[in-house]
Automatic annotation (TrEMBL):
Residues 9-325 form the Porin domain. It is a multi-pass membrane protein. It is found in: Cell outer membrane. This is Porin. Its main location: membrane. Residues 1-20 form the signal peptide. Keywords: Cell outer membrane, Ion transport, Membrane, Porin, Signal, Transmembrane, Transmembrane beta strand, Transport. InterPro entries: Gram-neg_bact_OMP, Gram_neg_porin_domain, Porin_dom_sf, Porin_Neis.
Length: 346
């Protein structure tokens, strides 16, 4: 029996929750534990072949039913460093709040924002993605609505990590987003749009980084195509705070900072058998400094995965990224990456 891409996406997203083990369930209170091990063996330009931890985690979810569709919830997630196997751990998620089936979810703490839901074209495991929005924070008030005829809305406020008023600058952020999904038979359609504004600086100089991302996806049976456009821009030419894909200044060798970054991503994927899909992403980007020095990007990513079991997936993924400076005297940089990954869910 053929399955649509929508069905495969739902199955993949539900993997961790389906596998979650309930360790406590009494009088309306429930605690689940789940997680995943995510390893990557990767070779890239100017680096030795390395074995990396790409976000292995253990997650504890707690909820208590309050009645009439209302529940209290909380999550603690421990994630491992991606600098090396077993280097260190950190609390990547720590939040609590309320959920109402007919209204939505309101949570407070260290968590993702609605901005993390916006990108649609990134079908890769590691190398794709152009979303420039604020996607997470340590102190976030997050609201995401229930589904209303295919639409979902979200809003976030991110507090300054430094609560003191020494500098009298509130380095806060806010994020707004809207999502739409519609399925008619084997045809699926999705839209996503988001906006974020982030304040960065001190009493001497401050800047606002404003970003927006918009995307669309069309799927039919086992095939899908999606496009995202994203842009981030600062409102102060004197203080450059936007970094971009680890790019370094060709003269100094230090990490470069930019005034404006724009990127477009086209993603394609095809589920040719139930256990495996092939995918490709194409990225076009442009970054501009305060002095109108520009860097242009062309990126090409391709990969294939195979799901041995609902809990085990492996993949082969490679990409080529070419960065060309407007100044002909500056070298064109090429970065090639090839990796084999394994993810085990429990």
């Amino acid at each position: 029996m053929k399955k649509t891409l929508i069905a495969f996406a739902v199955s993949a997203l539900a993997t961790t929750s389906v596998n979650a083990a309930t360790i406590f369930d009494k009088e309306g209170t429930k605690v689940d534990v789940s997680g995943s091990v995510r390893l990557l063996l990767q070779r890239e330009t100017n680096h030795r072949t390395d074995l990396k931890d790409k976000g292995s985690r253990i997650t504890f979810d707690a909820s208590h039913q309050l009645g009439d569709g209302l529940s209290a919830l909380g999550q603690v997630e421990v994630r491992f460093s991606d600098k090396g196997i077993g280097d260190k751990t950190n609390i990547s998620r720590l939040f609590a709040g309320f959920n109402h089936d007919a209204v939505g979810k309101l949570t407070f703490g260290k968590q993702l924002t609605i901005g993390d839901d916006i990108g649609l074209s990134d079908y890769t495991y590691n190398l794709g993605g152009v979303n420039q929005l604020v996607t997470e924070g340590d102190k976030v008030i997050h609201f995401k609505s229930a589904d209303f005829a295919g639409f979902r809305f979200g809003a976030d406020y991110v507090f300054d990590e430094d609560a003191s008023k020494v500098d009298n600058i509130n380095n806060n952020a806010y994020v707004l987003g809207v999502l739409y999904n519609r399925t008619v038979g084997d045809l699926g359609f999705a839209l996503a749009a988001g906006y974020s504004s982030k304040q960065v600086g001190d009493t001497k100089l401050s800047v606002k980084e404003k970003a927006w991302t918009v995307g669309g996806e069309l799927s039919y049976q086992n095939f899908a195509v999606a496009v995202d456009y994203s842009q981030v821009k600062s409102n102060n030419d004197e203080l450059l705070t936007i970094s971009w894909r680890g790019q370094k200044h060709p003269g100094t060798g230090d990490e470069d900072s930019f005034h404006k970054v724009r990127e477009v991503e086209l993603g394609l994927k095809y589920q040719f058998i139930p256990e495996s899909k092939i995918y490709a992403d194409f990225i076009w980007g442009k970054a501009v400094t305060a002095y109108d020095r520009t860097v242009r990007l062309r990126g090409y990513v391709a990969g294939v995965d195979y799901q041995f079991h609902k809990n085990v997936v492996t993949y082969l993924e490679g990409g080529v990224f070419r960065y060309k400076h407007d100044n002909d005297l500056d070298p064109t940089l090429r970065d090639k990456k090839l990796g084999v990954g394994l993810r085990v869910f429990f």
